[in-house]
Design brief:
The protein has 558 residues and is of the alpha+beta class. It has 15 helices and 21 strands. The chain has 2 domains: 231 residues, D-Maltodextrin-Binding Protein, domain 2 (3-Layer(aba) Sandwich), CATH 3.40.190.10; 222 residues, Dipeptide-binding Protein, domain 3 (Roll). It is globular. About 6% of the residues have low confidence. GO terms for molecular function: peptide transmembrane transporter activity.
Length: 558
């Protein structure tokens, strides 16, 4: 999943270990903030974000920030309890983590009784079925691909708006939901912890405008939402702690303000005056501030460093940059030291040479290109010469933030040295992924970051490099390098059917190596995400699944 500056969209120790997928955080229980005061009920938490959420509609959201905020509003079939030393999968709407049968091709979940929406009506299995069916409508695009990949009949189903149902999702009674899959999926119950596997009551579905009208069955509901300005959440009075094993309802309101400059947010929270004391950020600290803030002893207790099994990378569009030698030259030419500097230096993460990060099942240590992170200019120039010394002009897509623009400048400077001219295309951060994921908007080079959707290589490489999905998801294409290599596709199919974890992981390692042989991407850094809160914010849990500061237990000190 990515992170809007931690790409959303999001991998693997063991199935129960880190889920780093959506941008992830350090393990570990609640960390309070520093400062005096006891955990209290009431008050307002202010969330300062540089941009609005790409989506909050649970079937469309695929960024870590949006998914983290959705945890306050919607409940999913399963979820992650992150109060212990490692994330633990638990039942959320469901009473437990589901029961597989018929070789993990059928999954059954039983819903808790008494979970209520914001109007006091009860959440039922048909509401979850309807929610999942929304994934398939072309009006509800941008979300993860798993429902259409795995549910029987998903390839031809077009969503519920023409009155048609998906037969492979069955609700034998009000509290039971059964999914029939077209292949064995041993970790399907980790997929169901993602926001889209949640209930949407048909009567309150507003289709493509549901982003601002999400109907709550969580502790908080939308009070008001002015896009790109402010979202205010208030208590859902029908939510009950006794039915919810994951969340608490400590503050009265959450006030999310959008549109301030990244560095301005950092400085405000650092200064810790006025409402900044009860504020938190969801986007990571700006690259220009990170090195200084990471080492500031005064921030101890309210600085969260969340290691993400995630990767920050540059995708090379293989259908536009067709010559393998030119792509290999780019691999050697990029100076990862200046690139990492734009994101904040060593505090941001270690240099990457692979697309799977250490700590993910399937990770294999290798490096096909420069041993020196600052690149190998001689090798890059030699490859350009072999390619006939072209002098191409290339476009690079980045978010329109100072951090990303500094990153783009670093790429431009490196590539000019080998005769490639670079035009920078800055894109509004709130719409970045919906823009670059639409096949109508193609660039030669595209910045991306990815955090596993749950702790497994299966949520990284197949999602980012299965070329057959490009045509299938033209408005939600995650394959930013447009790679469609039969060798990679064959390995994807092979890994999907493997039940032996060691064999499967070895296949993912092989796949990673083939992708790098294709020079489809330049891996830049294995990411950490760093965020801060004010001194009167307590109960923040570093969420290693989303690489976000989780707000599920947050409170304001009085």
């Amino acid at each position: 999943m990515t992170r809007s500056t931690r790409r959303s969209r999001t991998v693997a120790l063991t199935a129960s270990a880190v889920m780093i997928a959506m941008g992830a955080t350090a393990c570990g229980g609640s960390s309070g903030g520093s400062g005096s005061g006891t955990p209290g009920k009431g008050g307002t938490l202010t969330v300062l974000n540089k941009a609005d959420f790409d989506h909050l509609d649970p079937q469309r959201v695929y960024t870590t920030e949006g998914s983290s905020m959705d945890e306050e509003i919607v409940r999913t079939l399963t979820g992650w309890d992150e109060t212990g030393s490692a994330p633990k999968l638990v039942g959320d709407l469901a009473t437990d983590t589901g029961t597989p049968s018929k070789g993990a091709t059928v999954w059954t979940f039983h819903l808790r009784h008494g979970v209520k929406y914001q109007d006091g009506t009860e959440v039922t299995a048909p509401d979850v079925k309807y929610g999942v069916e929304r994934f398939f409508s072309s009006d509800i695009n941008g979300g993860p691909p798993y429902a259409s990949q795995w549910l029987v009949g998903g390839a031809d189903y077009k969503g519920p708006y023409q009155g048609k149902e998906l037969g492979s999702v069955q609700t034998p009674d009000k509290y039971t939901i059964v999914f029939h899959l077209n292949q064995p999926v041993a970790d399907f119950n980790e997929t169901t912890a993602m926001p889209g596997w949640s209930a949407v009551p048909k009567a309150h579905d507003t289709g493509s405008t549901y982003d601002t009208k999400v109907w709550s069955d969580g502790p908080y509901m939308i009070k008001s939402y002015a896009k790109n300005k402010e979202l205010v959440l208030t208590r859902n009075k029908y939510w009950s702690q006794s039915t919810d094993p994951i969340r608490q309802q400590n503050v009265d309101e959450m006030d999310v303000k959008f549109g301030q400059d990244e560095a301005a947010i950092d400085q405000q929270i650092k200064a810790d005056a006025g409402t900044a004391q009860t504020s938190i950020q969801q986007w990571p600290i700006a690259g220009s501030d990170l090195a200084q803030l990471a080492n500031d002893p005064a921030l101890k207790g309210r600085y969260y460093k969340i290691p993400a099994p995630g990767i920050n990378y540059l995708a090379i569009n293989t259908t536009r940059v067709k010559d393998l030698r030119v792509r290999q030259a780019i691999e050697y030419a990029i100076d990862k030291t200046t690139v990492r500097g734009a994101f904040g230096g060593s505090a941001y993460g270690d240099y990457a040479t692979t697309m799977l990060s250490p700590g993910i099942g399937g990770y294999k240590k290798f490096n096909l290109y420069s041993a020196n992170p600052s690149g190998n200019l001689a090798k890059a120039k030699a490859l350009m010469k072999q390619a006939g010394a072209p002098k191409p002009t290339m476009s690079i897509a980045v978010e329109n933030t100072p951090t990303q623009e500094h990153f783009a400048d670093a790429v431009k400077t490196a590539l000019e040295r080998i005769g490639i001219h670079v035009n920078i295309s800055p894109i509004d951060a709130a719409n970045y992924f919906s823009t670059v994921n639409n096949t109508k908007n193609q660039y030669d080079l595209t910045w991306g970051d990815w955090i596993a959707d749950w702790p497994n290589a299966s949520t990284v490489l197949p999602t980012l490099f299965d070329g057959r999905l490009i045509k299938k998801n033209p408005q939600a294409n995650q394959d930013l390098s447009y790679l469609n290599d039969p060798k990679v596709n064959t390995l994807i199919d092979k890994a999907a059917t493997m039940t032996d974890v060691k064999q499967r992981n070895a296949t993912y390692g092989q796949m990673d190596e083939q992708i790098m042989k294709d020079a489809a991407v330049v891996p830049l850094t294995y990411m950490n995400f760093s965020d801060m809160s004010g001194s009167k914010v307590g109960g923040v849990i570093p969420d290693t699944i989303l690489a976000e500061p989780s707000l599920v237990h947050v409170y304001v000190k009085h």
